[in-house]
Design a protein that fits this description.
single chain; 4-stranded antiparallel β-sheet; 26% strand
Length: 202
């Protein structure tokens, strides 16, 4: 696994998704996952080239991006990318395979760069860096990776399940509220922020 591929994985864990593709026509005969990647317009210029190159290095294909509801998006059901995820034993966005934590320092930094670029925030005074995710287990694994790099952090409950979700409008004009399953927050405080910036360059 290369550093760019690790950055791509981090982005997928942060702003990617799985879609189950059902068999149809003359295509594949078994249900399988497609991997999707989303970029807002501020992220697109710096993030897509990295993610796109990483995907192309695995599949040999450069994918067409579409602007949809204000964000850029593409997805692929390439068997080669599916094998890449399978070889790493990645089954869910909620947790990393245990063996992934044994990757090289450079690959682990690449993964951290990807997920923090997708979902991390820096407070205005630069005294705290935060990463929000619905999976406490994933954040605790990221906490362990950061600790391997000498960066200390804390994980706490950010929002309890059942909190009001985001209001959105369906194609027929109906307004709905998305489900909210709660979230957790990983926080890096002032004494570790400098080291984080030096190593991760986020």
């Amino acid at each position: 696994i290369t550093v760019e591929q690790a950055q791509m994985l981090g982005w997928w864990y942060g702003d990617g998704y799985n879609v189950i593709i059902k068999p149809h026509g003359h295509g594949r005969k078994e249900p399988h996952f497609a991997k999707g990647f989303v970029f807002n317009q501020q992220e697109y210029d710096y993030a897509y080239p990295i993610v796109g190159r990483a995907i192309k290095s695995i599949t040999g294909v450069e994918y067409v991006r579409k602007l949809h509801k204000g964000v850029y998006e593409f997805r692929t059901q390439s068997p080669l990318l599916e094998k890449f995820f399978s070889d790493l034993e990645i089954e869910s966005k909620d947790i990393l395979p245990v063996n992934f934590l044994n990757q090289s320092k450079e690959v682990l930094i690449g993964f951290i760069q990807g997920i923090f670029s997708a979902d991390g925030t820096v407070e205005k005074d630069c005294r705290r860096i935060k990463l929000v995710n619905k999976s406490k287990a994933l954040l605790e694994q990221i906490q362990l990776i950061l600790l391997q790099l000498g960066i200390t952090s804390t994980v706490r409950c950010g929002r309890k399940k059942g909190y009001r979700g985001v209001v959105y409008t369906t194609d027929d004009g109906t307004q709905k509220v998305s489900a909210d399953n709660g979230s957790y927050v990983l926080c890096i405080h002032s004494f570790s922020c400098k080291l984080f910036h030096q190593l991760i360059a986020f």
